[in-house]
Amino acid sequence: MKTFGNKSLSAVIAITLNVVWWIEWAVAAGFLVLLAVAGHIRGGYVLQLPVTFSETTISTVRSISGNFPGGHINTTDGVLSLQIQANSPNIILLLLGYGLIFASINIITYQLKVIFSNFKKNLPFNALNINRIRNIAIVLIAYSVVQWLYTVLVNLILSSNLKWGHMDLTYNFSVSYALMGIMLIIVAEIFKIGLSLEEEKQLTI
Amino acid sequence: MGIVINLDVMMAKRKMSLNTLSEQVGITLSNLSILKQGKAKAIRLSTLEVICKALECQPGDIIAYEPDEDNLI
């Protein structure tokens, strides 16, 4: 199977990405409905955060402020479950957090969709493709940074509101996403060279 | 000015249209037009050969070098 053009691997990927993009929007809509229904029926949400801890006998946490009553740790899979009320500030925070994750994924999917559509039209070296690859790189690097900041912030909030044994959220900076972003910046530069070679070839009589 | 393409001059001398030249040399009209307007970045020797054959001329009749005014002493 050829790589570019109609009935190629790029065409298959372009169609797949198009479907994935629409599925993402459907999932987002479904999530919003579930969020509204759960908030209305239960009056609260359960946040589940992955944590690492050294004392395996801990099964509950004590809230030292009124913000997170009824915290519970599942020591089998290391998940901290916290109950929060379905009030406006919490809902806004949840929407903001999940919204950012969705936006990152959706932007990347959209850029890839358009890139592979151009590949399908046999236009690999295209100025727009170069910009789109750069956009994906920026989103990946920004996501790494935001994820790290989020981990630090959540850890600070939990430390000041809950009492437990030695417990910490992982301070991992997601190197893989950042590295992928840097690699894509390099790929964009290579595509730029390809574009100039393509233009020179087109103007060679 | 640099490299100057005098294709239109030779075509006028031989009373040949761009369409006719395109058919004779097997190069598309758009590419010949790019060449005639001096927008081409490069020309293959094989292309130069077929054009010279069709116009019965030398490469120097089609391509000339004119120094930039800034470089003149």
Mind sketching the topology for me?
The complex is a heterodimer of chains A (205) and B (73).
Chain A: H1 9-42, E1 44-50, E2 52-53, E3 62-63, E4 72-74, E5 79-85, H2 88-120, H3 127-161, E6 162-163, E7 167-168, H4 175-202
Antiparallel strand pairs in A: 1-5, 2-7, 3-6, 4-5
Helix pairs in contact in A: 1-2, 2-3, 3-4
Chain B: E1 2-5, H1 7-13, H2 18-25, H3 29-36, H4 45-55, H5 59-62, E2 63-66
Antiparallel strand pairs in B: 1-2
Structure in words:
The complex is a heterodimer of chains A (205) and B (73). Chain A is elongated. In chain A, helix 1 (9-42) packs antiparallel against helix 2, helix 2 packs antiparallel against helix 3 (127-161) and helix 3 runs antiparallel to helix 4. A three-stranded antiparallel beta sheet of chain A has the order 1-5-4. A two-stranded antiparallel ribbon of chain A has the order 2-7. In chain A, strands 3-6 form a two-stranded antiparallel sheet. Chain A is α+β, with helices and mostly antiparallel strands and 205 residues long. Chain A has helices at 9-42, 88-120, 127-161, 175-202, and strands at 44-50, 52-53, 62-63, 72-74, 79-85, 162-163, 167-168. Chain A has one domain. Helix content of chain A is 63%, strand content 12%. The model of chain A has no long low-confidence stretch (mean pLDDT 83). With 73 residues, chain B is mainly α. Chain B has one domain (2-71): 434 Repressor (Amino-terminal Domain). Chain B is 52% helix and 11% strand. Chain B has five helices and two strands; from the N terminus they run E-H-H-H-H-H-E. Chain B has helices at residues 7-13, 18-25, 29-36, 45-55, 59-62; strands at 2-5, 63-66. A two-stranded antiparallel ribbon of chain B has the order 1-2. Chain B is globular and about 40 Å long. The two termini of chain B are 15 Å apart. Classes of the chains: A alpha+beta (205), B mainly alpha (73).
